[in-house]
Hints:
The complex is a heterodimer.
Chain A: H1 16-30, E1 47-52, H2 58-69, E2 73-78, H3 90-99, E3 104-109, H4 114-121, E4 125-131, H5 137-151, E5 158-162, H6 169-180, E6 184-188, E7 204-206, H7 209-213, E8 218-221, H8 237-244, H9 248-251, E9 259-261, H10 274-277, H11 284-303
Helix pairs in contact in A: 1-5, 1-11, 2-11, 3-4, 5-6, 5-11
Chain B: E1 5-9, E2 12-15, E3 20-23, E4 25-29, E5 32-37, E6 47-50, E7 55-58, E8 60-65, H1 78-87, E9 90-95, H2 106-119, E10 123-128, H3 142-147, E11 152-153, H4 163-172, E12 180-182, H5 187-190, E13 195-196, H6 199-204, E14 208-209, H7 212-228, E15 232-234, H8 240-251, E16 256-260, H9 262-266, H10 270-274, H11 290-302, E17 307-308, H12 317-320, H13 337-346, H14 353-368, E18 383-393, E19 412-422, E20 425-426
Parallel strand pairs in B: 1-6, 2-7, 8-9, 9-10, 10-11, 12-15, 13-14, 15-16, 16-17
Antiparallel strand pairs in B: 1-4, 2-3, 4-5, 7-18, 18-19, 19-20
Amino acid sequence: MAWSRKDLLGIAELSAEEIHLILDTAESFREVSERPIKKVPTLRGRTVINLFFEPSTRTRSSFEIAEKRLSADSLNFSSSTSALTKGESLLDTAMNLQAMAPDLIVIRHGHPGAPHMLARRLKAGVINAGDGAHEHPTQALLDAFTIRRHKGTLQGIEVAIVGDIEHSRVVRSNIHLLLKMGAKVRVAGPFTLMPAALETLGVEVCSSLEEAVTGVDVVMMLRVQLERQARLRVPSVKEYFRLFGLTKRHLSLAKDDVIVMHPGPMNRGMEISSEVADGPYSVILDQVESGVAVRMAILYLLSGAREP
Amino acid sequence: MNGRHLIFRGARVVDPSQNLDAFATVEVQDGKIARIEDDIPSRDGALEVDAAGQVLVPGLIDMHVHLREPGQEYKETIRSGTRAAAAGGFTAVACMANTSPVNDNRTVTRHIVEEAAAAGFARVHPIGAVSKGMAGEELAEIGEMVRGGAVGVSDDGLPVKNAELMRRALLYTRHFGVPVIQHAEDLDLTGPGVMHEGEWSTRLGLPGIPGSSEDVIVARDLILSEDTLGKYHVAHLSTGRSLEMVRRAKAQGLAVTCEVTPHHLLLTDQAVAETEFSTDMKMKPPLRAELDRQALRKGLVDGTVDAIASDHAPHHPDEKEVQFSSAPFGILGLETTLALCLDRLVRPGLITLERLVDLLSCGPARVLNLPAGTLAPGSVADITFFDPEKVLTVDRDRFQSLSRNSPFGGWELRGAPLSTYLGGRRVQL
């Protein structure tokens, strides 16, 4: 199949075929990062704007590296260095960017739906790099890419996602993606950080970390987003770690070849112990590596360019 | 032109206050209804009006609107808001107190009444604030405002949060016979919420407003109204559970009433997802779940609901065309309510035309104790005419309102307002 969307706003609206296409395309780009000269001319002459309204290290540098390895001309706007802090409306920002005729815009924004608002009004393709607690499609795609490399498939794989579910865009995109690809998903976390009616999405909601990880192929830990909570919804970090912090003991309940994932940044000693984060089951740095290949694939597909 | 003498012929006359639904002739003289009979002979000097194909009903009353004047005239003015009322088939509105300055004193109340009278498009009944500055601390001068024309009190936009203040308001308003109208919302439970808490808020990653945010306040207030015997009215009731509590309170004989909005009867939280975060789907209380919507519709049928009110809440496009979480709460209603109700409630057979007129005219008149909502001989000739078969497509650019924030743009509706009369005078837009 061929890619036909102008934008990548979320996983919810993608078909399994589209997801396969992105993952397969990413496989072919992975090899570029292993070359001594890590650059292909695929997007030469194309302009990509990275528009980050929220702080980001991993996602933004991953996009930037992907853009540079594809030879795109890229530039960055971040909220601390631009008119974004001067009270300009998102709509005005968008129209100004449009006037500069970019080919693609990568946007991260604290408000769900902000990328959709841009996509409706811009000719440029829009890539959602995280909108509030809504979606983070490129993260879910790189997670799937990582799982597929380790497990060979997503079909029938059992995944436990644990942590601050309510504030996580990663979990929503991952639930959509994993279910579309035939995996089974369990979630666990403090009920005070669990959004309403989560089971209607097709996942099993567990009441303990032990229950969630028993017999699974993949454990995906989420960061507790302390900065998004007006008041902490769990009594203390110590109590959180005791209830939902992943340790070696928990991994003994999972399948023997379990892999441990984390989208980062980690709060060591809160949701994950260092012995697990740095241990043999951890594929956390593989995720970061996969990110570049997956984002190259997405940039390539959305730009409508030809094969590298 | 109060001396004017009019005879309307050929209309279907629907007046629930007299159990009337029949083709009849209506005679208006000196600004009042003179009589309604099968046939009335022509008289010298009487203007004959052919109303064949039209429905003639007591003037419609929207008991919950925001006219934004004084203070926010860029959103709406008394003039533009009452023009919107007339265009929508309403002869009267009750306007909320959350203006700037707040309508918490007789001077502001009089200003609203006088501006409305000068404009002349619809009657305006001010709702005074419960508390000074809507600060939720001390009672406002309710007696003075009632003397100036206020017909109820409410801090709408905000709840009366303090239970002791609510108790005092319910006691004090008994002197004047006006209801305390509550915007029932526990702001702590709402927190940062921007839409109904449920499957769709979870899918969209938007902070939710649980139904319990409304229910705990309604439950508390019903207990207080039982103890005080005060008149209590729930504004824009939106959940099945609150409706059930009101139903039980009524059965118990309490002086409790409630209103629902057209949008809560017709839309659900899913609309936020279907429109990809349209801010015209953002209001308080939020669009609720399908089960709530069904419960409200049942309340229309069984009589629990006293009134349909629009909660007409104009906002400027610059304020609404932002990301969903940042947009202000509220949508327009005056120019779509009648057509929506005719097409989506009466035409499918959920309620009768007579019941609709009760909800849009007699009911609000009863709740606010207004001398309106009837065509009984001797009553003021405030009349609404509409055509139940005329098809219209909602065009937001043709609204009389200064704002455009309606979720119903583009809806094709059968049933359209035609004209209104105030005291026997046709309102000219």
